[in-house]
Specification:
The protein folds into two domains: 2-131 and 257-324, FAD/NAD(P)-binding domain, CATH 3.50.50; 148-253, FAD/NAD(P)-binding domain. 22% of the residues lie in helices and 30% in strands. The chain is built from six helices and 21 strands. Strands 3, 4, 7, 8, 9, 10 and 21 form a seven-stranded mixed sheet that branches. It has a five-stranded parallel sheet with strand order 12-19-13-14-15, with helices on one face. The chain is elongated. 42% of the residues are buried. Bound molecules: flavin-adenine dinucleotide.
């Protein structure tokens, strides 16, 4: 049994058959994994889902305005709907299990969990997502979702005519600053060093924006507010002097995502950002191994994109299993 939003519910797992070989093991239970599970189960693929939690990043998202079909929905509400649909189907779920090692043994996939359990399947889908890197400064946790955001694509429209800060100096930070400059009144772009981003169109676009003020060579010291964010204090990366207190309504932390891939190191190709490299069909290049969602090198990280990749992966698995017969 697991605790799920305060309720107790039974995990649909027969204890006596903890370890038969399934046709597909889906690792994760975010939008990519759930969509893949729905598609796979409807194709009568024998699916086992193994995940640390239910819902992934969506479960911690305050409000969503860009998932088609819902003008506005909270993250937990969307997770509830996804899970409700998944639970109509015959999908064995092992929730609360963190996979620490995934290997390919004699053409099958064997996963070992932190609690010492072992699961195996003929094919596997890695849908373990990513987590946004945090600043680790006072106020960040307190104002998460109350002005502190990790996703400009998701939250920029909430800051129309406001003053915001973007933290970071890479492509995602400059892209966020540019996007926000078209919505907000003023954008501070805070980076610890010179930008490392594409000259065109990003650096050129940011330089051409009259309402972006670059603050280069500074780090965030603290985020302050009352009910919601009211300001941010920055200090020079080196030395003690020259602190600045900026009055802002929001802070976008754009210092990168950390994909959850450590358990698959050595099994699958991973790029410099730690993302699993897949082709446009979500195939990893290792027979029977697919990856979908934020854990992959897909260019943008969004719920609808993760779900779409999950669907593609399930179809790829179906073809793989057909050929394997
Ligand atoms: C604060 C915030 C707000 C966002 N707002 C929006 C928005 O408004 N709109 C939008 O489209 N997108 C938004 N996003 C992005 C969106 O949440 C992600 O793109 C999406 O959740 C990715 O789905 P996923 O299934 O790939 O991964 P995730 O949602 O990250 O799910 C990964 C799953 O894998 C499991 N897992 C991880 N490692 C292991 C392991 N070793 N063993 C077993 N299980 C494991 C996790 O427990 C989880 O269940 C937001 C993200 C954040 C952080």
């Amino acid at each position: 049994m697991i605790r799920y939003w305060g309720k107790i519910r039974k995990v649909r797992c027969k204890p006596e058959v903890m370890n038969p070989e399934h046709e597909l093991m889906i690792i994760g239970c975010g939008p990519a994994a759930i969509t893949a599970a729905i598609y796979a189960a409807r194709k009568r693929i024998d699916v086992q889902m193994v995940s640390e939690d239910i819902g992934g990043q969506v479960a911690t998202t305050f409000g969503i305005e860009n998932y088609p079909g819902f003008r506005y929905i909270t993250g937990p509400e969307l997770v509830e709907k996804l899970v409700e649909q998944m639970n109509q189907l015959d999908i064995e779920q092992q929730i609360g299990e963190k996979i620490t090692k995934l290997s390919r043994v004699d053409g099958s996939y064997v996963a070992v969990t932190g609690s010492g359990k072992e699961f195996s399947a003929q094919s596997a889908l890695i849908a373990t997502g990513a987590y946004p890197r945090e600043l680790g400064v006072p106020g960040e946790e307190k104002y998460r979702g109350k002005g502190v955001s990790y996703c400009a694509t998701c939250d920029a429209p909430l800051f129309a005519d406001a003053t915001v800060a973007v933290v970071g100096g890479g492509n995602s930070a400059l892209s966020a600053a540019f996007e926000l400059s078209r919505i907000a009144r003023k954008v501070y772009l805070i980076s610890r060093r010179q930008w490392r981003a594409d000259e065109a169109p990003l650096i050129e676009g940011v330089k051409a924006s009259t309402n972006i003020e670059p603050i280069i060579g500074y780090v965030v010291e603290q985020i302050a507010g009352e009910e919601v964010v009211k300001g941010v204090t920055v200090k020079p990366r080196e030395g003690n002097g020259g602190r600045r207190s900026l009055t802002v309504d929001g802070i976008f932390v754009e210092i990168g995502l950390q994909p959850n891939t450590s358990f698959a190191e050595g099994l699958v190709a991973i790029n410099d950002f730690g993302e699993i490299i897949v082709d446009c069909d979500t195939f990893t290049g290792v027979p029977g191994l697919f990856a979908a969602g934020d854990v992959t090198n897909v260019k943008d990280k969004q719920i609808v994109i993760a779900a779409g990749q999950g669907a593609l992966a399930a179809m790829g698995v179906f073809e793989y299993l057909l050929k394997r017969r």
